[in-house]
Amino acid sequence: MSENFQLRRHRRARRVTLRVKPDASLVVTAPPRVPERVIREFIAERAEWIDSARERLRSVQDRRPEHLSA
């Protein structure tokens, strides 16, 4: 999977988490010692969730009045 994502290593993180930002980009937060291979597998396993989160985001943005879309 060649998913583009921003990886944030955080010393207090206890697990790998995903967040879809308003611009539809993906942010992955992970503990420092989790290998990137494991992170990429995690993203691949959650691909359906990522796609649905992005679709929900698009749906909400499409319903916003134009003067609020900026």
Q: Any overview of this molecule?
A:
There is one protein chain. The protein has 70 residues and is α+β, with helices and mostly antiparallel strands. It has two helices and three strands; from the N terminus they run E-E-E-H-H. The chain has a three-stranded mixed sheet. A hairpin with a 5-residue loop joins strand 2 and strand 3 (26-30). The radius of gyration is 14 Å and the shape is elongated. The N and C termini lie far apart (32 Å). The mean pLDDT is 90.
Q: Summarize this, please?
A:
The chain has about 70 residues and is an alpha+beta fold.
Main features:
70 residues, three-stranded mixed β-sheet, 2 helices
Low-confidence stretches: none
Average pLDDT for all residues? 90
Number of helices: 2
Termini gap: 32 Å
Q: Radius of gyration over alpha carbons?
A: 14 Å
How would you characterize the largest beta sheet? Answer: 3 strands, mixed
**Percentage of residues in DSSP E strands:** 15-25%
Secondary-structure map:
Layout lengths: L5 E4 L7 E4 L5 E5 L5 H10 L1 H17 L7
Parallel strand pairs: 1-3
Antiparallel strand pairs: 2-3
